[in-house]
Amino acid sequence: MTSPCSTPPAGATTRNRSILVCGGAGYIGSHMTQWLATQGHTVTVLDNLSSGHRQAVHWGELIEADLLDAPALEQVFRRKRFDAVMHFCARSLVGESITKPYDYYANNVTGTLNLLETMRRHDVNKLVFSSTAAIFGNPIHDVMDEEHPKVPINPYGASKLMSERIFADAAQAYGLHSVALRYFNAAGALPEHGIGEAHACETHLIPNVLRSALGTGGMLKVFGHDYATHDGTCIRDYVHVQDLAQAHSLAVDFMDENPGAHAFNLGNGQGFSVREVISTAAAVVGRSIPYEVAPRRAGDPASLVASSCKARAQLGWRPQWTELEPIIESAWRWHRNPPQWFPSQA
Fold it and tell me: What's this model's pTM, rounded to 2 decimal places?
């Protein structure tokens, strides 16, 4: 894929940092710890293991703790000195956030405040935050940049947007430096390192397509086939999880010279329909993947595609996984041979 954005050379750093990865036992967090370790950084993982997996922590010490437990956080920061914090801890199921909004605001906002207060007491002033395209709500442009109106339509998106607002206020009041990275659709895996999208309750399209191909996930459902798109199904932007990890690492370096609160959209810059994902997956696995059409889901926009020009220009982000087929192929290799602790039928 040819990018419409100009991308300067990425600035390399040789500085070893001590980085706390909150949520480092989860899908994106575990890939983050692998990336940091290969870059020579010292990694500490904090996770309550409610949705993450102890066995996914191959790089760095695991501390089992919850962001809602302020005294436990205090002990973590007393034990070690951190140069920066990466924050992946969140409840992230859109439908569940609608039925359990208190849980989402408590976990995603109060937990974040606890972390920020502890960081401030221990003079740690760099934070990279896992945000989401859900802060934007329904798109009014085909390709969404950082200035797109932010009108979240569910508590999950609202909780993430609240956190971003807190970071802006904290920059002015306390000198916090932060980068919020707004993902569109994380995908793919690093099967050679034993990590992939290990969700017991899976809601994402690509893993559900692959589970259906394996016969372990039931009949695949396509929610809606009458959208105003070229084939009637929703269009989404997919970015490989390792490219997300690269962006987080670059964000830490970026804060060295750029104080204050910043935000970047992360995506492929092009969209693929549900039917295109299914047909590409069928080519990867070597057989057709049947599906049934189900009614539309409430709150599903027809198309969500990111502009990542700002991340390319300012962070020097250079995604390596720019085509859909290799992204799906990496996930297929993980799902076809998952680690014993996560059986494929889970």
Answer: 0.90
